[in-house]
């Protein structure tokens, strides 16, 4: 598929995926969601981390309301639309490659659902969040009931949806929706710097971190601990570990210092 709604490029081992519909505030139409799914299903083989960014002053205005209005979808049609969003965002969250989102301006509705699928979120001081579905008479459909509720708690999500209020970046930091907050315009550089650092970890460690933790969250404690032991058995005994630990044993490694 030739991409129209996203731009992609590599910077070393870091892939950059940029939403490219600034004239629509990067609202997600069916094509955009399909392109996100296609890209994240098969990122370039050398990719060790991905930065998800967006052109223009706003990260993403959510569902393309004009498309939804024009198409007058039936329940069955919109269920399929939602399942397309779920597939695309599952590719991001469970694809095994760390994804860092660089946010600015509006991160609303489906835009917040998209950002919530990333593993690390960096916002600048223009970033704000909202779930304005109630005012349009609609509901979330891109995974927010699972991902956003887990990050900010169901109670906070219910309040945001009922009132439709805008949550500013400072509150986003306080409640863990943002991991980093930068000056305006600096989120992308910060996200790239984090992504390059993350890309230096062992790929199998990163795979287990981004796939294992969220999957264990879905399990019973017994299943979760068993799964953790299986993952650790694979990761801790990989050949790369000996090389990395030799650095520590022979006192060449950087210390974990405050
Ligand atoms: C859009 C969309 C959109 C902008 N779908 N076209 N999402 C929302 O409720 C957010 C609705 N959008 C806004 O509140 C504002 O547009 C923004 C705060 C994001 C940006 O404001 P601003 O002043 O920078 O831009 P603008 O002039 O409002 O928008 C520029 C153009 O983008 C304009 O089109 P134009 O032809 O007049 O130039 C807008 O109509 C268009 N545009 N947002 C379509 N969302 C799976 S279910 C998920 C459910 C949801 O996501 S609900 C949340 C929907």
3D architecture notes:
- By secondary structure, the chain is of the alpha/beta class.
- 50% of the residues lie in helices and 15% in strands.
- It contains 12 helices and 9 strands.
- The chain has helices at residues 30-41, 65-71, 75-94, 110-117, 133-136, 147-152, 154-163, 169-174, 187-199, 203-217, 221-236, 239-249, and strands at 6-11, 14-19, 49-54, 99-103, 106-108, 120-124, 128-130, 167-168, 180-182.
- The strands form 2 sheets. Strands 1-2-3-4-6-9 form a 6-stranded mixed β-sheet, with helices on both faces.
- Strand 2, helix 1 (30-41) and strand 3 form a beta-alpha-beta unit.
- Helix 1 packs parallel to helix 3 (75-94) and helix 10 (203-217) runs antiparallel to helix 11.
- It is globular, with a radius of gyration of 19 Å.
- The mean pLDDT is 97.
SSE string: EEHEHHEEHEEHHHEHEHHHH
Number of strands: 9
Main sheet specs: 6 strands, mixed
Q: What's the tally of helices? A: 12
Helix content: 40-55%
Gap from first CA to last CA: 47 Å
Topology of this protein?
Layout: E1 6-11, E2 14-19, H1 30-41, E3 49-54, H2 65-71, H3 75-94, E4 99-103, E5 106-108, H4 110-117, E6 120-124, E7 128-130, H5 133-136, H6 147-152, H7 154-163, E8 167-168, H8 169-174, E9 180-182, H9 187-199, H10 203-217, H11 221-236, H12 239-249
Parallel strand pairs: 2-3, 3-4, 4-6, 5-7, 6-9
Antiparallel strand pairs: 1-2, 7-8
Helix pairs in contact: 1-3, 10-11
Residues 24-25, 27, 58, 61-66, 82, 85, 106, 108-110, 132-133, 138, 140-142 line the site of 3-methylmercaptopropionate-CoA (MMPA-CoA).
